[in-house]
Amino acid sequence: MANSFSSANPVDPAQLSDSQMWDSLKLAIAESSGFQRWQIDRTSQETDLDMLVHQYLRETLETLAY
User: Fold this and answer.
1) Exposed, middle or buried: residue 30 (CB in 10 Å: 0-12, 13-18, 19+)?
2) Are 11 and 5 a contacting pair, CB within 8 Å?
3) Radius of gyration for the chain, computed over Cα atoms and rounded to the nearest angstrom
4) How confident is the model at residue 54 (pLDDT cuts 50, 70, 90)?
5) What is the reported pLDDT for 11?
6) Could you state, in order of their start, the residue ranges of all structural domains in the chain?
7) Could you give the C-alpha distances from 6 to 3, 41, 58, 59, in angstroms and in order?
8) What secondary structure letter does DSSP report for 66?
9) What residues contact 56, with CB distance under 8 A and at least 6 apart?
10) What does residue 22 show for φ and ψ, rounded to 5 degrees?
11) Mind giving me the DSSP string for 1-65?
């Protein structure tokens, strides 16, 4: 499936639906070095990017809350 979102083609966030915004943010997070390090350190076999990003964000926010 082709994706129209990339760092090479910035889009106007005001023109995005909520699902398009989430897809764009999810991809940006997945490409970040912090997410990639977190994923390497995990022992989970989870492969669904949506679930991984949700878990990463939850754990990151929990850590920041302390």
Assistant:
1) middle
2) yes
3) 13
4) very high
5) 66
6) 19-65
7) 8, 26, 24, 25
8) -
9) 29, 35, 38, 39
10) -60, -45
11) -----BTTB---GGG--HHHHHHHHHHHHHHSHHHHHHHHH-------HHHHHHHHHHHHHHHHH
Token duo for residue 34: 């912090």
Tokens of 29: 């997070």
Amino acid at the residue 51: M
Which of 12, 42, 44, 49 shows the shortest CA–CA distance to 27?
49
**Whole-structure pTM value:** 0.70
